[in-house]
Amino acid sequence: MTQLLISKALDQYSEQFTTPETEVLASLNRETNMKIPMPVMLSGHLQGSLLAMLSHMIKPKNILEIGTYTGYSAICLAQGLEEGGRLQTIDINEELEDICFSYFCKAGLQDKIAQHIGNASEIIPRLAGSFDLVFIDADKQNYHLYYDLVIDRVPIGGYILADNVLYDGEVVLPVGEQSKNARAIHAFNEKVRQDKRVEHVLLPVRDGIMIMRKIAAN
Q1: Count of CB atoms within 10 A of residue 37's CB?
Q2: What is the C-alpha to C-alpha distance for residues 128 and 117, in angstroms, rounded to an integer?
């Protein structure tokens, strides 16, 4: 996880015709790949650019990110914050806290991003206010739980994004051939499809991103 779902040549072509990474993001990309376990978890250039573009379009005041990893996606999402806006990001791995903070500082975003270390299901209820944009990119077994915890905190017109919703393409396999995580992701996708509070589109970018816009309270 995560394999390319399009050819490497097309992926490289897509990156070639996407605005280049900033120096900070390029440096974080390199350091993550050189030093951090499971660097495939990094959002990377193409997906990061999409996250930044969506954030600029939405212009959120408050963002919640569930799953920080080394902070690449947080930096991308924070680029679209309204003046005075804030991004709250949660991760279970305290060992990555310092590298995240160092790059938030290098990006000049240390006053716009608040880090939380611990179990997201315990931290989310303690956070105040609503969220104009939520990005779910954490343990796949709990996507459904995170969705339930945030859906009522997102105003009508707000957005929820979920990463890895194609799970290496396993979601199209017969159920008996899917991994435990793939089954959880498929169940999450089905949950979203049946939820009349949101309209949604699944984009086959990298490992799949589900974009949901809240259109009703219940």
Answers
A1: 10
A2: 16
Question: Is a pLDDT exceeding 70 seen at residue 56?
Answer: yes
pLDDT tens digit string along 195-218? 999 999 999 998 999 999 999 998
Alpha carbons 3 and 100: distance in angstroms, whole number? 24
Superfamily of domain 8-214: Vaccinia Virus protein VP39 (3.40.50.150)
Q: Provide the whole-model pTM.
A: 0.95
- 142: Cα separation from own chain's centroid: 14
The encoded tokens of residue 202 equal: 């699944």
Distance from chain centroid for Cα 198: 18
SS (H, E, C) 139-199: CHHHHHHHHHHHHHHCCCCCEEEEECCCHHHHHHCCHHHCCHHHHHHHHHHHHHHHCCCEE
Q: What is the DSSP letter of 81?
A: P
pLDDT digits (tens, 9 = 90+) for 89-119: 999 999 999 999 999 999 999 999 999 999 9
For residues 127-155, one letter each, b for 16 or more C-beta atoms within 10 angstroms of the residue's C-beta and e for the rest, the string is: beeebbbbbbbbbbebbbebbebbbebbe
